Amino acid sequence: DGILTLTEVDAFEYMRATHKPVFVVPNGAPLSPQITVQDIERSGRIVALGRLVRQKQFHLLIDAFAILARDFPGWEVVIYGDGPEKGSLEKQIQELGLQSQVFLPGSTNNAGEAIAESDICAVTSEYEGFGMVFIEAYAARKPVVTFDVERGPKEIVIDGKTGLKASPFDVADYAKKLRYLMQSKRLRTELGDAGHRLFMEKYHIEVVGRKFEAAIATILQTKHKNR
């Protein structure tokens, strides 16, 4: 009777292919107490979360940070997750001499808290259908750095407003975007606040719930009229 999609791009393609009613209902997240605390002084942490698989391309994050590590000795990168790439990532960290700045602590059961304890949220995926980490970062008032790729990164992250986008898979450009944020607390705050406003308008679980209910109501009304 109808199709739900996470992004506008998906909606357009499904509508064109099926000619069915299509409703854009993104994933949502709650605003939990752990990520509303604004008084904790945080400094020097870039966080990334996801399965340690090739698609996430965490090796590119490590390469980008290696360009910056000497200029920012107080900063660290924490990559949460488990997966088959862990061994190669550990080897890369060791070869680059980043053992004191880049860490792989394993998976976490509280992504919101992990992001709230950071300054920047990094995403280096080859692609993302949506990307929960983006809206979790927005909920925590944290700016994101991502490659400008389909689908979620391109649509969810507003370049220069809620985060920064690097040319796809360009390590030097990604490092440049990280540098902008690492050297400016003011910029991190501005982008983080804008992301939070977008979260409250579009991705808060109650807002998403209303969109879901509206889609169901529209389908029911259409079916009733067609009887």
Report what the structure shows.
- It is a single chain.
- By secondary structure, this protein is of the alpha/beta class.
- Helix content is 45%, strand content 14%.
- The protein has helices spanning 8-18, 58-68, 86-95, 111-116, 132-139, 152-156, 171-182, 185-203, 205-225, and strands at residues 3-5, 22-24, 45-49, 76-80, 102-106, 120-122, 144-147, 163-166.
- Strands 5-4-3-6-7-8 form a 6-stranded parallel sheet, with helices on both faces. It has a two-stranded parallel sheet with strand order 1-2.
- Strand 1 (3-5), helix 1 (8-18) and strand 2 (22-24) form a beta-alpha-beta unit.
- Mean pLDDT is 93; it is low at 34-40.
Descriptors for this entry?
single chain, alpha/beta, 9 helices, 45% helix, elongated
